[in-house]
Amino acid sequence: MEILKPNFSYDILTKIIVAGTTNVGKTFFMKRIQYYCEGEAFNIQNLDQSYIPTIGRDFTLFNYKIKDKIFKVQLWDVSGQERWEDTVYYLARGAGAILLFYNSFDRKSFLKAIEFYTNLYKSYPKSIYVLIKSKYDLPFNAENNNDDIVRDEEALEFANKNDIIFANLSSFEKYENGINELFGKIFLKYLELSKN
Q: What is the pTM of this model?
């Protein structure tokens, strides 16, 4: 299982949507994949200095090899600003998977991820959904309130109840923070569902 640079050779073409409010780690997620595809080492300090939040939407291509299949992946990130929410619903049409990000210190972002799932599932029940907990390894500070913290038990209960993949993505670790494994889970489930 590995992420590869995009090329013309593939077996399955699929689209993945990245959704969530602002400040939940979607842009870092996209940048990590872009760095990896370019063969560059991920350096969070350099990314911090060049960080520009997504305005509207962002797009990247990569291939993913699992078993004997190569997926060509169109990965779409939609700005977390409220005015871009409709774009999430538009882009989700035909998506193989929808990644719902939330900040583990921000309950509103978790509730928004649940709202996205509830609304998207009505129109796109065949997509694979993933609930992604981010920023869990950031230091707790005065801006955080204990009432805003989303406990893993709560997120896992929601994910299990709705047959959603649950994942943690680190803010500080290098690329080997679970992204490859995350896509492995998504595409194994994709292959399993396509048999039925």
A: 0.84
